[in-house]
Amino acid sequence: MNIDMIRAAALRIRGHARVTPMLTSPFLDEIAGRRVLVKAENLQHTGSFKFRGGWSAVSAMDDATRKRGIIAYSSGNHAQGVAAAAAAHGAPAVIVMPENAPKLKIDNTRALGAEVVLYDRAGGESREEVGGKIAEDRGLTLIRPYDEPQVIAGQGTTGLEIATQATALGVTSGDVIACCGGGGLTSGIALALEAEAPNMRVRPAEPEGFDDTARSLATGHKQRNPTETGSLCDAIITREPGDLTFPILQRLAGPGLVVTEDEALHAMSLAFKRLKIVVEPGGACALAAALFNGDKIEGDAVVAVCTGGNVDTDVFADALKRFP
Amino acid sequence: MNIDMIRAAALRIRGHARVTPMLTSPFLDEIAGRRVLVKAENLQHTGSFKFRGGWSAVSAMDDATRKRGIIAYSSGNHAQGVAAAAAAHGAPAVIVMPENAPKLKIDNTRALGAEVVLYDRAGGESREEVGGKIAEDRGLTLIRPYDEPQVIAGQGTTGLEIATQATALGVTSGDVIACCGGGGLTSGIALALEAEAPNMRVRPAEPEGFDDTARSLATGHKQRNPTETGSLCDAIITREPGDLTFPILQRLAGPGLVVTEDEALHAMSLAFKRLKIVVEPGGACALAAALFNGDKIEGDAVVAVCTGGNVDTDVFADALKRFP
């Protein structure tokens, strides 16, 4: 896993993934007490950065493998990213999703042409087991959501864009906060920044109670979350950091930042009001950390990656109502 | 008023206005029955394209004039655009706003450093009279919202970007629908397309009951709306087309498109769900026309300009609730 793989992925996704904008607002700067640059990956195709990793992985396969088909397991954003990338490549796709995933994500994944297989996350079924079995039965190739070199390479292209866009705005040092589940995006950005913006440092943001990465970085050993359910931030809830991603984060990432669910909802409302973008709870953790955890951040400027916008209507309306 | 002024404005706003993205979604294409390209000017600084015209006008002034100060009258988006541009140039700004304008727009205009003077639109006060008097008393330079060459030039830079971005997506002909009030944006885009994308044609979109531009184009003479109040689409409600803008539209624009308020709200909800952007009712009329008036549009692709995103929370939440 290295920068050359990220640069190669950038060439493959060019013209397919969107170069998402870097947004700013003086009102957010005032709240944060420093300049806040928001990388709006919620505006990526399929509504999250996951499209990058999906496209990178599918486009890196040989034709014969791709034609046999692809399988992925995901609470929704990886599902949609892989489904869209597979469809664009003419490859069949099976997506294993928890039955309590947001309805919008399940519906979208189906509409993007994938076969959706639901499993009972709350009841203790493991998506790895369900997905692995179907893959074997049908001869499909599994695209893991983060512990997959070509997925990390695809997510890392976000970091290449951040380096370019932040530099254009006069920012060449400081923290780059990324909402972090298994660490595919965070580790990919880490490698990209190491090569392209060595004075910038990635830091993972997680919701309270699901801060496995922050605790793993603090202790130097992989830590587990006690559960994978019960958070509105469904997009970034994983059991523990990945085997590929964690060593990269250990080497390159700064300390993890932890936000409350209310802070994430408040950040969603501010993104609505000040940036005119729609962010889902899990996708708002980095912005929440930038806005409400300023005492744990150094430097005159901070970059926050809004990672996704696939939020059900009632959750979004509730965030606006609670933080008007 | 010509393309050279637009190109000069593009040089002045470069690095200050944002190059807003051109967004797409297969789900919107399916509803419209053709490709839909959405120019997201709601993501512009201050949440609408008006920042372009404000910056263009303020940056075109000589230093002495600028230092004396600027005045503008606006229901909100022009107000914020001018206020932000004036502040960035160190020029004092007075903004005359109707007292029933959305609270967010009034608050933002004040927060951007402008002095806000409210007037009673519903009670029959004219913003032109109120604004003109203050300008004379204080020696301020009035920046009109649309009948002002440098404002039209600034808005026209949107058209230059549309030509470039649509071409990059393989679209070089078809209708470009713009939400239309006084016609500053629509006429600016018209001139830009004439020069840069001669097979594309601008068309104004307006809400039902406030379709002065559509009726003016149809009859060949400027028509008036019976009232300037009573629409959620406050951003694009004007009495009649401008003296500068209407001749440009007569020469270059296609027939106007008229949408219902419900269609605008429905388009807002779809922009939320499918594009992850926040659009205000007046800013959603063009997208509504593209999605729900397909029988009045020709060609395999259509461009819709989402012109602004400054919407109060309750209006937005209501749109999501009514069109889930």
Key terms:
Rossmann fold, alpha/beta, 324 residues, six-stranded mixed β-sheet, 15% strand, 14 helices, 2 domains, 46% helix, homodimer, four-stranded parallel β-sheet
Can you walk through the features of this model?
2 copies of one chain form a homodimer. With 324 residues, chain A is of the alpha/beta class. Chain A folds into 2 domains: 3-49 and 149-322, Rossmann fold, CATH 3.40.50; 51-142, 3-Layer(aba) Sandwich (Rossmann fold), CATH 3.40.50.1100. Chain A has 14 helices and 10 strands. Chain A has helices spanning 3-13, 26-32, 50-60, 63-68, 77-88, 103-111, 127-138, 149-168, 184-196, 212-219, 245-252, 261-275, 285-292, 313-322; strands at 22-23, 35-40, 70-73, 93-98, 115-119, 141-142, 174-179, 200-207, 257-259, 301-306. Chain A has a 6-stranded mixed beta sheet, with helices on both faces. The first copy, chain A, has a 4-stranded parallel beta sheet with strand order 5-4-3-6, with helices on both faces. In chain A, helix 9 crosses helix 11. The first copy, chain A, is globular, with a radius of gyration of 18 Å. The N and C termini of chain A lie far apart (44 Å). The mean pLDDT of chain A is 95. Chains A and B meet through helix 6, helix 12 and helix 14 of A and helix 6, helix 12 and helix 14 of B.
The strand count of chain A comes to 10
**Could you name the CATH topology of the largest domain in chain A?**
Rossmann fold
Unreliable stretches of chain A (pLDDT < 50, length at least 5) are none
Structural class of chain A: alpha/beta
Q: In sequence order, what are the helices and strands of chain A, one letter per element?
A: HEHEHHEHEHEHEHEHEHHEHHEH
Shape descriptor of chain A reads globular
Q: Can you count the helices of chain A?
A: 14
Kindly provide the radius of gyration of chain A, computed on alpha-carbon positions and rounded to a whole number of angstroms. Answer: 18 Å
Q: Report how far the terminal alpha carbons of chain A are from each other.
A: 44 Å
Number of domains of chain A: 2
* Average pLDDT of chain A: 95
